[in-house]
Amino acid sequence: MNLAKCSVLMRERGRVEETIHSMQRAGAGSLQVISDFDMTLTRFAHNGMRVPTTHSKHAMKELLNTYYPIEIDAGRSTEEKLPLMVEWWTKVHELLIDQRIRKDMLARAVKESSAMLREGYKVFFDHLAEHHIPLLIFSAGVGDVLEEVIRQNHVFHPNINIISNYMDFDHTGVLQAFKGQLIHTFNKRQGALSHAAHLRQVQDRPNVLLLGDSLGDLTMADGVTDTHNILTIGFLNDQVEERKESYINSFDIVLVKDETMDIPNAIVKYMRPKDSVPV
């Protein structure tokens, strides 16, 4: 496993290796993976161009340009960012509802978009499915869209569960609202705790590999009780120098401008499959 790549940063390399060895000894049967979607399982950039997220539309660009710098501003506290994130996601959802999006157009819209999963995604998704390792995708994006992205890439396996913002269509198939509680970057802890039923299904899996690109993603495993090991991987895609210190202090492993799944793939492949049991 090449943790010596220059794009891999760690505050405590020894502790990371110890955690990985402990998880490996326990085997794949005690592992679960919890991951963000946009800019974690999908690429941040490709050929120097920013890749769209599940919210992308021209009308969203202005909101992104206003609120994204706030989301990643290392000088602002989470408390300061919270109301602004709620404001951002609420406006995005209102814009989508105003566009009267049709359910039967979603597949085509995704097909025509340039959304891309990270290099090595197929190995990642297929390996987890093959060894019955549950994958919980926790996204502040649009659940219907990310499901379609995964489906069109032929990796929507039965081991996947998704917590996200889902569209609510009226009887004619037109978007009229969003279902349930709004999930944004910084309230994933509440989202995790409110989906305790799913988390109970994986309570016999005390080892967690957590993947995210935001400090808010670190709370995604808060609903998992009795954990033995949690290994966190943070994708640092943007504003590297400003955010590097906070990421190194927060995530176990930080991947700098790495558009691949190489490190997560190396870790999950290192887990012993023989203890694996169906979920």
TrEMBL record:
Catalytic reaction equation(s): CMP + H2O = cytidine + phosphate; N(7)-methyl-GMP + H2O = N(7)-methylguanosine + phosphate; a ribonucleoside 5'-phosphate + H2O = a ribonucleoside + phosphate
InterPro entries per the UniProt record, alphabetical: HAD-like_sf, HAD_sf, Pyrimidine_nucleotidase_eu
GO cellular component: cytoplasm
Residue intervals passing through the bilayer: none
Location of the protein in the cell: Cytoplasm
Keyword Magnesium: yes
Single GO term (MF): 5'-nucleotidase activity
Gene3D superfamilies membership: HAD superfamily/HAD-like, Pyrimidine 5'-nucleotidase (UMPH-1), N-terminal domain
Main location: cytoplasm
NCBIfam families for the chain: HAD-SF-IE
Oligomer and partners: Monomer.
Protein name: 5'-nucleotidase
